[in-house]
Design goal:
Blueprint lengths: L1 E5 L2 E4 L4 E8 L7 E7 L6 E6 L6 E3 L7 E6 L4 E6 L8 E8 L3 H6 L9 E6 L1
Parallel strand pairs: 2-10
Antiparallel strand pairs: 1-3, 3-8, 4-5, 4-9, 5-6, 7-8, 9-10
Length: 123
């Protein structure tokens, strides 16, 4: 299983970024997917998840309607559109998936993780 996260960068507060996660090594279309993040000195936390068909999504409370998760099964890619970014959103963002569904994605008990993509929001 391989994931390759991209799209991070440095933005000012209030700005936007779109993260991408290209998946290989397993059947993408059989897996619910999710985004997670880890800020310096903190544990990794759940951000958002999406079901196999892309019709059901879930978000952490801190997202507050600012982020949107989506997926393209044709491209084996899951996206995270992030708007109105805040300095507290600064973190390394990761993606991962689970064939058992969104609840298991949220539990984040994965055997491995990708490199992640750094998001830095300046005030």
């Amino acid at each position: 299983v391989q994931v390759a996260e991209s799209g991070g960068g440095v933005v000012q507060a209030g700005g936007s970024l779109r993260l991408s996660c290209l998946v290989s090594g397993y059947t993408f279309t059989s897996n619910a997917m999710g985004w997670f993040r880890q800020a310096p000195g903190k544990e990794r936390e759940f951000v958002a998840n999406i079901d196999i068909g892309g019709s059901a999504t879930g978000y952490a409370d801190f997202v507050k309607g600012r982020f949107t998760i989506s997926r393209s099964n044709a491209k084996n890619t899951v996206y995270l559109q992030m708007n109105n970014l805040e300095p507290d959103d600064t973190a390394v963002y990761y993606c991962n998936g689970d064939p058992r569904g969104r609840d298991y994605v949220r539990a984040a008990q994965f055997p491995s993780w990708g490199q992640g993509t750094q998001v830095t929001v300046s005030s």
